[in-house]
Amino acid sequence: MIIMKLVLQLQLFTSYQSGVPKFHQFSSVPDLKHLLNNAAKLKSLKHATQIHSQLVTTNNHASLANINTLLLLYAKCGSIHHTLLLFNTYPHPSTNVVTWTTLINQLSRSNKPFQALTFFNRMRTTGIYPNHFTFSAILPACAHAALLSEGQQIHALIHKHCFLNDPFVATALLDMYAKCGSMLLAENVFDEMPHRNLVSWNSMIVGFVKNKLYGRAIGVFREVLSLGPDQVSISSVLSACAGLVELDFGKQVHGSIVKRGLVGLVYVKNSLVDMYCKCGLFEDATKLFCGGGDRDVVTWNVMIMGCFRCRNFEQACTYFQAMIREGVEPDEASYSSLFHASASIAALTQGTMIHSHVLKTGHVKNSRISSSLVTMYGKCGSMLDAYQVFRETKEHNVVCWTAMITVFHQHGCANEAIKLFEEMLNEGVVPEYITFVSVLSACSHTGKIDDGFKYFNSMANVHNIKPGLEHYACMVDLLGRVGRLEEACRFIESMPFEPDSLVWGALLGACGKHANVEMGREVAERLFKLEPDNPGNYMLLSNIYIRHGMLEEADEVRRLMGINGVRKESGCSWIDVKNRTFVFNANDRSHSRTQEIYGMLQKLKELIKRRGYVAETQFATNSVEGSEEQSLWCHSEKLALAFGLLVLPPGSPVRIKKNLRTCGDCHTVMKFASEIFQREIIVRDINRFHRFTNGSCSCMDYW
Ligand SMILES: [Zn+2]
Ligand SMILES: [Zn+2]
């Protein structure tokens, strides 16, 4: 009703305007104010420009009050373009602090922090002093772009102009520090505030949560309890409980929400459901979700994410479909979390189904969604689908490029990865930290030493990115892989920070490949100190000894594992058949078709022995002497392979996932099997993809 009335008034005004001679004056100032207010309420840019042009034709436009009101009107209509145009039309003498503040506020809110700062500085050079509104407007700009030193300069100005006692300014200031990641400075401001309101307390809670200091967030919340927390305080503290998996306190907060009658607020409910999901109480979350009250897209997203957390993909899909049935339009976050989840459990069928839904809704143009699609197809082992999505995306951001480069690399297409990286540079896209991890690994897999060093050096020299541990590890791997072990050692010594297990692990792998027992032993000892619980390092060293026939030393390493209480994680493989995931452990005999599976393995063994296969018994662990070969044939990935060969239609690819690195013997068997059965076999182990076709693997036997 109210809206209708406003529209009517404005229409009257416009028709009045067109029929009236140009010399029309507003009969009174309140009339004009009324119209401006109405246009602002409707956020109608069309009406705003009409009023503006009327003011110009009636020569009423140059008064400061009218300029300010118009500026505010354009700001409320969300048109930064009109605001700037109007502002730039008037010479500075006809502006005051209100004019500037309106503009700065608008720039700050429209995500233009640097422009906001420029105008803030320009205002000061014209001799106009900022007031508390100006400061409250400029601080969010610094916060948004994490401009800590600019923020500190503004802090000094606030101090100089004596606005620190203003609770709004002080809250904006502490909020800025929190968003710039400096909770210490935020606390200083908070401690010195003479008057705090709920907003300032909430800013502290939000700040602590944002900086992952969950315990501190809960501490501040306890103090807020006596003031009467609102939905911001409550939903932030629930995030803190979720972060700490602090269920007891979370339940107390739930109780106080019920007592305060806030449980119906969708914002509060979402945080509560999220907290229960993250604390592992999915049933309580479901109860809340189904228990009436409003639900928005975030509520659904929280439930979908909750399903993934308990690895229940089918249920997540059910929620996704129910959401669509209820007429809730999935948003960018829903899709991208669905794809990431499909990727993390390599559920290709579900991922493809959601993809087709995205195509229907036209969301695919969105670069965040297409990059998560690329990653999903990549992780599900479908490199070609990933590439198709990538090529069909019109505008690639750096995340999208990086996703595709990573997929190429993970699938052993290192040359394509490097080619794509060059293409990205040619398009003028600035690479990120993570882009270089993929590119350098690709160089390493193809033995491109010169290119590797060229890119590594370009990080700091050209792109202003400090190489991190991952990049150093790639370079060590690159040198180690081609056998330049001494050089790799010197490279590690030249590092500007302490090398970690990733870096030493790369060198240990190279020692294994190039049979350097001495260096291998030294490196392994460092690794045992750095991560005494990682069975992988013990296994690597023991394999180096075994390859050299140093069986006693190998036994010694196994004994050390026992002393340190390290247990080799038991192997486990998954295979998807017709939307169902089948899990196989080593020696598994639980499947209903166990007889056929072991029969298939026997047949496979005979076939490949005829082609020259010899069991690589060094990979047999924990087995009685004489039965090594037999134990090799009970590895989980072999069982999954046999099952796949039995049930998947001829010619279709077999996709297997494994929780550990795949062993050398299984690797060899997969190669043979891909040739004999003329099938593509894709094994995604903990490190990478192995794509077996026609008797060879995409990893070129190095992993
Ligand atoms: Zn194996
Ligand atoms: Zn391989």
From TrEMBL:
<feature type="repeat" description="PPR">
    <location>
        <begin position="397"/>
        <end position="431"/>
    </location>
</feature>
<feature type="repeat" description="PPR">
    <location>
        <begin position="296"/>
        <end position="330"/>
    </location>
</feature>
<feature type="repeat" description="PPR">
    <location>
        <begin position="166"/>
        <end position="200"/>
    </location>
</feature>
<dbReference type="GO" id="GO:0009451">
    <property type="term" value="P:RNA modification"/>
</dbReference>
<dbReference type="InterPro" id="IPR046960">
    <property type="entry name" value="PPR_At4g14850-like_plant"/>
</dbReference>
<dbReference type="Pfam" id="PF20431">
    <property type="entry name" value="E_motif"/>
</dbReference>
<keyword id="KW-0732">Signal</keyword>
<comment type="similarity">
    <text>Belongs to the PPR family. PCMP-H subfamily.</text>
</comment>
<dbReference type="Pfam" id="PF14432">
    <property type="entry name" value="DYW_deaminase"/>
</dbReference>
<feature type="domain" description="DYW">
    <location>
        <begin position="612"/>
        <end position="703"/>
    </location>
</feature>
<dbReference type="GO" id="GO:0003723">
    <property type="term" value="F:RNA binding"/>
</dbReference>
<dbReference type="InterPro" id="IPR046848">
    <property type="entry name" value="E_motif"/>
</dbReference>
<dbReference type="GO" id="GO:0008270">
    <property type="term" value="F:zinc ion binding"/>
</dbReference>
<dbReference type="InterPro" id="IPR032867">
    <property type="entry name" value="DYW_dom"/>
</dbReference>
<dbReference type="GO" id="GO:0005739">
    <property type="term" value="C:mitochondrion"/>
</dbReference>
<dbReference type="InterPro" id="IPR011990">
    <property type="entry name" value="TPR-like_helical_dom_sf"/>
</dbReference>
<protein>
    <recommendedName>
        <fullName>DYW domain-containing protein</fullName>
    </recommendedName>
</protein>
<feature type="signal peptide">
    <location>
        <begin position="1"/>
        <end position="18"/>
    </location>
</feature>
<dbReference type="InterPro" id="IPR002885">
    <property type="entry name" value="PPR_rpt"/>
</dbReference>
<dbReference type="Pfam" id="PF01535">
    <property type="entry name" value="PPR"/>
</dbReference>
<feature type="repeat" description="PPR">
    <location>
        <begin position="96"/>
        <end position="130"/>
    </location>
</feature>
<dbReference type="Pfam" id="PF13041">
    <property type="entry name" value="PPR_2"/>
</dbReference>
<keyword id="KW-0677">Repeat</keyword>
